[in-house]
Design brief:
The structure holds two protein chains of two kinds.
Chain A lengths: L4 H8 L14 E8 L4 E9 L5 E9 L2 H14 L4 H5 L3 H8 L6 H22 L1
Antiparallel strand pairs in A: 1-2, 2-3
Chain B lengths: L4 E2 L10 H7 L18 H20 L7 E4 L2 H16 L5 E5 L4 H12 L3 E5 L9 H7 L4 E5 L13 H10 L3 E5 L18 E5 L10 E5 L27 H36 L5 E3 L10 E6 L4 H7 L3 E2 L1 E2 L1 E2 L6 E2 L1 H5 L4 H5 L1 E5 L6 H20 L2 H7 L13
Parallel strand pairs in B: 1-11, 3-4, 3-5, 5-6, 6-7
Antiparallel strand pairs in B: 2-8, 7-8, 9-10, 10-15, 12-15, 13-14
Helix pairs in contact in B: 1-7, 2-7, 3-4, 7-11
Classes of the chains: A alpha+beta, B alpha/beta.
The complex binds pyridoxal-5'-phosphate.
Subcellular location (chain B): Cytoplasm
Family (chain B): Belongs to the class-V pyridoxal-phosphate-dependent aminotransferase family. NifS/IscS subfamily.
GO molecular function, one term (chain B): cysteine desulfurase activity
Amino acid sequence: MAYSDKVIDHYENPRNVGSFAKDDPTVATGLVGAPACGDVMKLQLKISDTGIIEDAKFKTYGCGSAIASSSLITEWVKGKSLEEAAAIKNTDISAELALPPVKIHCSILAEDAIKAAIDDYKSKKA
Amino acid sequence: MKLPIYLDYSATTPVDPRVAEKMMQYLTLDGNFGNPASRSHRFGWQAEEAVDIARNDIADLVNADPREIVFTSGATEANNLAIKGIAEFYGKKGKHIITSKTEHKAVLDPCRQLERDGFEVTYLEPDTDGIISVEQVKAALRDDTILVSIMHVNNEIGVIQDIAAIGELCRANKIYFHVDAVQSVGKLPIDLQELKVDLMSFSAHKIYGPKGIGALYVRRKPRIRLEAQMHGGGHERGMRSGTLPTHQIVGMGEAFRIAKLEMAEESDRILALRERLWNGVKDMEEVYINGSMEHRIAGNLNVSFNYVEGESLVMALKDLAVSSGSACTSASLEPSYVLRALGRDDELAHSSIRFSMGRFTTAEEIDYAIEIINKNIGRLREMSPLWDMFKEGIDLSKVEWAHH
Ligand SMILES: Cc1ncc(COP(=O)(O)O)c(C=O)c1O
């Protein structure tokens, strides 16, 4: 399969790979996907008192497009408020990376990862 | 060293320069371009002679009679001719066929077609090493069984089946036995005087001959009859019509002749390369061999790198031309049906890579491959949440995944 230059760039030089301590109260974790489906994404956000995403890290098991999608969103969410981050659409991700139709599910998974992390943050706060 | 390194010899091989040289003499006006079926002039006679020599060389490699070789467009056609040809000719005697789940699609799909035509097919499940036992075949035999089709060597995992024992069983029960020998011919000794095999399929392009030519061995004693699948001028004793492609046949003949001379030595050399590769990757954690190591062809290594997804692995190994166990061409990943039949779970099937080595593979290439594999498996695992969870001692099968 031919990948776009942007996918290859993120795949070869992924941004923000890593983890934060899960039990840190300022850290939100979203884990989505399933090994049997071929992709699992873990997105972690470090969130300030004022609800701004100060830092983000990811780990992904999946194809090149899945790795690129998660790498891209860690760049995008930094500096955003939770509402702004929640507004990121899978179509923005797939357009930016020029994903072919069979890889759209990777961008959907990335959007899901942001939502899951935000949900985790809200349940931690509650 | 040229990149990417070709490690996909089970998919196809380059044509040996000696073969290409020979083929070029059978195309142009200066060459031997005649139609081997032309009886009235020397162009035809010379072409026919070239075909006869090739037929002899092919028969020679497997200790058969040249009159038992029927040329086809490849092994897909040879498998179709064998399976449908037997089923149609002997269908009145019975409508049951036995094969295995790990056969090539060129065996499975003709069987599926026969099922639509009213035949019943039993698909034997191999053990976790990929082996079909004679006892299994025996247990599946019925009064109306007419054909058993079991491959000699599997194209994905390189596992060798005991066709000698299965042949004895079939002969004793008067059931025809077809063997897809595409991945074994020229690599393992095959003696059709000894083996109780009635039909055997060959392809030229897996042993340094050209694509688009193959053959079906059809035993004469005891005589096997087939319903032709291609009708026309009655070539190949009526079993396969169509003008014989002299250059292709000459190429196949030369490839088989060379294989006979060099097979033993070549196989030792390739086995040493395979061991070199395996020794270079096996010390990584969570690396698994797929298929029997004991009953395996020299040039095949099929390995699963757990917690690394197959497609990203292929991308990481872009300097190596290898095959992946998952066909990730659609949104839903489809893991290899062969690995599934061995009972491998989907994750391990997804993370498998087939390395296949051949005549032109060098030790230098293997060493480079080892370096790339080690570096990239490490990198992808650093990026894998599953690897972290494994390291934390989490049982992934117990995790509730958010399926989407
Ligand atoms: C085991 C096996 N059978 C049959 C075939 C089909 O052969 P051909 O490409 O000559 O049609 C192949 C090769 O793809 C093979 O590996």
